[in-house]
Amino acid sequence: MLPRGRPRALGAALLLLLLLVVGFFLFGRDPEYGLGTTATLDGDPYGSRNRSTSSLQLLLPPKCEVMLHVAIVCAGYNSSREIITLMKSVLFYRKNPLHLHLITDAVARNILETLFRTWMVPAVVVSFYDAEELKPLVSWIPNKHYSGLYGLMKLVLPSVLPLSLARVIVLDTDVTFSSDIMELWALFGHFSDKQVVGLVENQSDWYLGNLWKNHRPWPALGRGFNTGVILLWLDRLQQIGWEQMWKLTAKRELLTLTATSLADQDIFNAVIKEHPELVHPLPCVWNVQLSDHTLAERCYLEAADLKVIHWNSPKKLRVKNKHAEFFRDLHLTFLGFDGKLLCRELFGCPNQFPPGVEQLQQALAQLDEEEPCFEFRQQQLTVHRVHITFLSHQPPPPRPHDVTLVAQLSMDRLQMLEALCRHWRGPMSLALYLTDAEAQQFLRFVETSPVLSARKDVAYHVVYRDGPLYPVNQLRNVALAQALTPYVFLSDIDFLPAYSLYDYLRASIEQLALGRRQRKAALVVPAFETLHYRFSFPNSKAELLTLLDAGSLHTFRYHEWPQGHASTDYTRWREAQAPYRVQWSADYEPYVVVPRDCPRYDPRFVGFGWNKVAHIIELDAQEYEFLVLPEAFSIHLPHAPSLDISRFRSSPTYRDCLQALKEEFHQDLSRRYGSAALKYLTALQQSRSRA
Amino acid sequence: MLPRGRPRALGAALLLLLLLVVGFFLFGRDPEYGLGTTATLDGDPYGSRNRSTSSLQLLLPPKCEVMLHVAIVCAGYNSSREIITLMKSVLFYRKNPLHLHLITDAVARNILETLFRTWMVPAVVVSFYDAEELKPLVSWIPNKHYSGLYGLMKLVLPSVLPLSLARVIVLDTDVTFSSDIMELWALFGHFSDKQVVGLVENQSDWYLGNLWKNHRPWPALGRGFNTGVILLWLDRLQQIGWEQMWKLTAKRELLTLTATSLADQDIFNAVIKEHPELVHPLPCVWNVQLSDHTLAERCYLEAADLKVIHWNSPKKLRVKNKHAEFFRDLHLTFLGFDGKLLCRELFGCPNQFPPGVEQLQQALAQLDEEEPCFEFRQQQLTVHRVHITFLSHQPPPPRPHDVTLVAQLSMDRLQMLEALCRHWRGPMSLALYLTDAEAQQFLRFVETSPVLSARKDVAYHVVYRDGPLYPVNQLRNVALAQALTPYVFLSDIDFLPAYSLYDYLRASIEQLALGRRQRKAALVVPAFETLHYRFSFPNSKAELLTLLDAGSLHTFRYHEWPQGHASTDYTRWREAQAPYRVQWSADYEPYVVVPRDCPRYDPRFVGFGWNKVAHIIELDAQEYEFLVLPEAFSIHLPHAPSLDISRFRSSPTYRDCLQALKEEFHQDLSRRYGSAALKYLTALQQSRSRA
In the 8-state DSSP scheme, what is residue B397? Predict the structure, then answer.
C-alpha cells in the first residue's frame, strides 16, 4: 500500500509540496504505510522469510535481518493508551524490525492508525484487523472476564493472521517490556518439534482451585499458564488443527462450567491439560504477573533480570503488593517517555522508513540553518505525533444543526477547561499541545475534576510537542478534522462564550436554513474582552452592553488591533435584531461558525500572528458570506502571555519571517484564485506601506 | 559516617520527628550517607572486597555482591549538570551497587552533595575528594585543552583514591551509557597480568599527525587511545610506579612539545607508546566518540550494540556528523528522565538504602490511605531531589547591607522572571518546582533570554516535582538556605518590587544599623495589587498613591483577606516619613526583609493557605520587631489560578486538613514557646469561632 497521491504533487513548488506532505501525515485518512487490512498482508515480504529459518539462526539472529511479528488485541480508548506505553517499552529496547498485527475495534483503529502514521517509527510496519469480524467466532463462549469478547480473540489468531506468518508473539496491552523483545522471539528456537505454544506458568493459585467455597476453575496443568505473553507457532497450530481442538475442548468444558472466568486463558489451559506436549514453558521472567495475590516473588527474587511485567490485576498500577513500587517505576518510565526519541533508526541497518519520511528528511536537510527563518521552515515541516480522542468519548448523536466548539491549547491553559465546560454545554473538539509527560498530567487533571470527567462529549486530541514554535494552525486543523457535527464554532481557548451561545447557534443555523442554502455562510460571533482578572460574566446582551458602557468590557483588541474585528461593526451590532451581512476587510479575523467541511487553516503559520487572518481570507476567497449574529457574543479573559509568545514578541527577525510567510501565502492565493485574490494582495501592500 | 543526631529526636511526637527527618535531608549540611572525604574511606567496607576477587568471578558476578567503583572529575555548574545525565544513564541500566568517587571543586561539591543526599538512590555510595588539593600535582603541566587542569587530574587518581580500592572505572562527564556498567567492569577479567589500563582506541586521525601544517601531536601507538572511559587497575599501577612513570614521560616530552593539547590523554598515550604492554584495548563500543571528524562509524556500523557514547567535541550535542541525531536521542532520553524513577531498589538484593531512608519509608507506610488528609501527610514526608545553583552563578561580593530577593515558582510563572530582573537589580535566590524535563525547558528559556542570561547574580535552585501538593514552604526554605547576603527579602514570584526597592532596602538597613542592634527586626514592604492585566508600574510612592486613589491599584487582598496585611496600617503608611513599628495581629502575613539566619518556614504547610502566616508568627514569637518602611512597596500582578490551587479551592476536605495543620502547628508552638505562644492560640480560636 504505497501512497499513490505523491507523484502528482512533485511538480509544484518545494514549500507547497512539503506542506502537502505534512498535511498528508496529519490528515490523510487512507490506509497506507503498511496500515492495510488483512488482505494486504499476503504479499508481506517479511512474514514468509522466517518460515524456513532454522532454530539455530533464531538463536543468533543476523543484525537487522529478522523481522519480529507481534499481535495485540486492542479495543476502546483506555487500551489504546495502554498499548502505546507497551509499544514504547518494546521500541526502547528492540534492535530488530517489527511488524505489529493489531486486532482493533473501530475506536482503537481510528486512534492507532493516526498515531502510527504520524509517529513514523523506522522499521515498524503496522497492520490492522477488524475485531468486529472476529466477534462471531468467539461470541458463543460465555465469559465473565473484564476483557470481554476481546480477550477471547487471542484464540482465533491462527486463523486470522496471514498464512504467510509462521510465528508470532501475542501480547496483552497491560504488559511492559524491560528487555529486548528479540530475546523473547529467540525462545522459539528452544521449541521441540511438537511444541506450538510458549507460555509462562500462572503466578497465582487460581487454577489449583479451592480459593473459596465453590471456587471451581477450568482444568489446568498444575498452576496453569498465563496468556498475557504467548509465543504462537502459527503454521504448526494450523497443521495440528488448532481450531477444532480448542473448540472441542471449550464446548466440552462448557457442559459443566457455565462460563470462562479468565477468557482465552481458561481455554488455553484446558487444551494444554489434555495435550501437555503442545506447550513450551517459558522462563517466568517473561511474564511477571502483578495481581493482588501474586506469587511472582518466587520468580523475580531469584532472577538476575526481569524481562516483561504484566499488570494483570483489574487494578492495574494501583495493585498492592510488596514490590509494586519497583514495578510501577519501570512502567512510569515509559508512560511519560518522549515517543519521538524512539524514532531513531535501527543502528547500522539500511533505512526502513515509512513512505514519505525520507522526502521530509531530505527537505529538512536542505534547509539552511543560518537562514533567519530557519526555525519557521523547520517547524512547518515537523510532523507531530497525534493521539486523537485521548480520553473516553461519546460521539454526539447525529443532529442536523449541531455545532462543535473547536479550539487548541497547551498546558498553561488547562485551567480554562472547567469554565469552558460550564459556558458551552455542547460537543467540543480540543487539540492539546503536550509532551508525553504532560499528557499524563492532563489525564490526571481530567480524572480529578468532577466537571470534566462528567463530560463525555468533549474530545481531547493530544498533539505531541516537537520544535520551538507553537504550531497553532496544525493544532486547529487536528481539532477541526475530528469535529463530528455538521457545524463548527472556531474559537480560541481564552474565550468564554455566552451561556446561551450553544442553543442560540443551533437555533440560528436552523432559522437561517444554512444546510439548505446554496450560498456558503460564516456566522460571526462578536468578540469582547475584559482586562480585569476578576470578572462577573454577563448573562445577556443587555448586561454585556451595560458593562461595555461602564468600561469594564471592551470590543476585542480595540486598542492594539482594531482592524481584526472592525468589519463586525460593533455599533450596528448594538442595535441589531437580525443577522446582518458584513464584507471582508484587511486583517479581519472574527470567530465564526462554519460547516465542518470548511477550508483548513494554513499550517505554514506557526508561532503567533496572522494565523486566523489567513483562514478568513480563504473563506472569503471561497465566497463564504459573513453574517453577524445579533445575540451571539464571546469574551476573552486576561492571562499572562504564554512562554511561546514572550519569546518572540520583541524579536525583529520574528516579524520579518512573519512578513515572508504572508507574502508566500499571497503568492499561493493568486495561484489558486487568480485575479479574485488581487484584493487581498492590495490590502497587504497598503498595510505594508502604512507600516 | 552514620548520622549521629537521630537518636535524640526519637522521643518526640511522630510528626515532629518526621519533619525533622525531612528537614535533615533538605537542609543538612554535614557530610553523611557516604559523603565523606578521602580520609573517611579507609574503612570503606566495599573497597577492599574486590581486591582478592579472581578474574573468573568478575566475569560472572554473583547478584548484588559486586560493588562497582567509578571515579569522575567534575568542576563547575555545567559539568555538574552533565554528570547527572551521565549518572541517570548508568543507574537506568545498572544492576549492581555503585560507589562513586567524585573529584570536585567547591561549586560541584556543593551541588552534588545536596543532590545525592536528597536523591536517595539505593545502593549508591558517594565519596568526595577535593580537586583544589590535587591542583599542585598537575599544575606544572602546560595544557591547552578546554577541560583545563581538571582534565589532567585523571593522571593522579591512583595516588588519590583510597589504597583499599583495587580497580576503578574512570569516566568523563560527557559520556552517556546505553548498557549495564557491570559489562564494562567485567572487562577487567580480560586483562593479562601485565595490563593496568583499559582504553578504547581514539576514533580520529589526531595522533597520526599532519592534520594541518605543523600539527605535531604527542606520541601515541598508532591512532592512540581515548581517555573518556578508562579501566584503571589501581593496585597494579602503584606496584609499577605509575606516578614516576607518567611524570618522567611528560617531562621528557615537554622538552620538545610546549603543552598538552588533549590534557591527560596526551600523557596516557605517550606512556603507552613507551610501554605498550600496559594497555588492554577495549572494544570500540565502550567509547563511541562523536567529535566533528569522528571515524566512529567504522566501529558502530558493525556493532550489534552500542555501550557508551562520548560527546568529546567541545560542541557536545551540537556536533555535526551523519548519525548525530541517533546519538542525540539516546542522550536526550536521560536528559529529561525523571530521576525519581531511578530510586528503585536493586532487584532481589538486600536493602541498601542511605541512612534515614528506611525510617522515612516506614513513616510513609504507616500513613492511612483512607484518612482524609493522607495526601498532606504524604507530601510532608516527601523528600524532594534538589539541584542547587542549576545554572552558572556568581555569588555576590560580601557587603554588610546586601539583600537577596527570595521566592519560589513553577513552570507557569516563568514569564515573570524577565520583569522581576528588570525591577530588582540585586541578587536573587529562586527555587523552581520542576520535572526533569521542565528543568531542561527552563535551561533553554534562560539561554534564549538576553535579560536572564545576562544576570549572573540570580541563583536558580531546581526542586524536582514529586506528589500532588505544591510544597510551598519546602521550596521557600531551599531558596532561603541558598541566599548568600546578610539579609533576605522574602517575596512571592507574582509580585514586582518598586524599581528603587533594592537600593532603598540596603540604605534602610544601613540607616537603621540593623546589623549592630541587639533587637531583631523584620522590615515590612507594603503590598499592593492590580486587577488590571495591562498596567503601567508606578515609578514612585507618589505615583502609586495616585493610582490607589484612582482605584487602579488596591492594597493587597483588600477584598478577600484584609487581615493578611491590616497590621501594616496603610493609612499611616500614606503619610509616613520614617519607619514605624507595628504589632502582630491574627493572620498577619506581610512581605519582610530579615537577616538570612531567620527562622525557616514550617514545611508542614503544603499546597495553599497559611504558609506565610505561620512564618510571621514564628518571627513574632522570636521577638522580631515589625518595622514598616515608608518608601517601600511591591505590587502583585494578576494571573490565572495555578493548576495546583484550582484543584483544591473548592474542596471542603482541603479546608479541614488545613485547619488540622494549623492546630498541630499551634501545639508545637506552645511546646516551644510556652505561655508566650498563648496569644496565637487565642487568635486562632477567635477566628474559628467567627468562622
Answer: P
Start-end of H helices in B627-677: 643-649, 652-673
Distance in Å, alpha carbon of B690 to nearest chain A alpha carbon: 26
Distance from A121 to chain B by nearest Cα, in Å? 13
Tell me the residues of chain B between 90 and 109 that have a Cβ less than 8 Å away from chain A. 95
Residue A15 grid cell: 514549500
Sign, CA dihedral B192-B195-B198-B199, equals: negative
Q: Are strands B625-628 and B521-525 parallel, antiparallel or unpaired?
A: parallel
At B618-665, the pLDDT tens digits run 999 999 999 999 999 999 998 877 766 666 666 788 888 888 999 999
- A603-631 pLDDT per residue, tens: 999 988 889 999 999 999 999 999 999 99
- B526-565 pLDDT per residue, tens: 999 998 777 899 999 999 999 999 988 999 988 888 899 9
Most A CBs within 10 Å: which of B284, B447, B452, B531, as the mutation test of the A interface?
B531
Q: Which amino acid is at B60?
A: L
> Which segments of chain B have a pLDDT < 50?
1-61
Q: How far is CA B679 from CA A490, B171, B673, B682, in A?
A: 58, 60, 11, 5
State whether A347 and B338 contact (CB < 8 Å): no
Residues B491, B497: contact at Cβ < 8 Å?
Answer: yes
Q: Which residues contact A576 (CB under 8 A, 6 or more apart)?
A: A628, A630
pLDDT at A36 over 70: no
Per the CB < 8 A criterion, the answer to whether B324 and B290 are in contact is yes
Contact by Cβ (8 Å): B156, B73: no
CB atoms within 10 A of CB B324: 17
Grid cell of A355 as nine digits: 513512505
SS3 A674: helix
- Helix (H) or strand (E) run with residue A686 in it: helix A678-690
Query: What are B281's three cell numbers?
Result: 584495548
Contacts B325 to A, Cβ<8 Å: 344
User: How far is CA A660 from its chain centroid?
Assistant: 32
Sort out which chain A residues have CB atoms less than 8 A from B646's CB and list them. 415, 418
**CB-CB under 8 Å, A534 with B348:** no
CB of B368 within 8 Å of a chain A CB? The answer is: no
A300 and B348 in contact by Cβ < 8 A? yes
Question: What is the rounded CA–CA span in Å between residue A485 and residue A458?
Answer: 12
Of A343, A348, A415, the CB nearest to B300: A348
Nearest to B78 by CA among B428, B340, B447: B447
> What Rg, from alpha-carbon coordinates, does chain B have?
29
Residue B220: half-sphere exposure toward Cβ, Cα within 13 Å: 26
Chain A residues whose CB is inside 8 A of the B342 CB are 329
**Cβ-based neighbour number of residue A46 at 10 Å:** 18
- The rounded Cα A189 to chain-centroid distance in angstroms is 37
Q: Which is nearest to B142 in space by CA: B259, B235, B265, B26?
A: B259
- Residue in A309, A646, A648, A654 to test binding to B, most B beta-carbons within 10 Å: A646
Question: How far, in Å, CA of B35 to CA of B38, rounded?
Answer: 10
pTM: 0.86
CB B145 within 8 A of CB B264: no
Query: Could you report the predicted ipTM of this complex, rounded to two decimals?
Result: 0.81
Length of chain B: 691
C-alpha span between B563 and B610 (Å, rounded)? 12
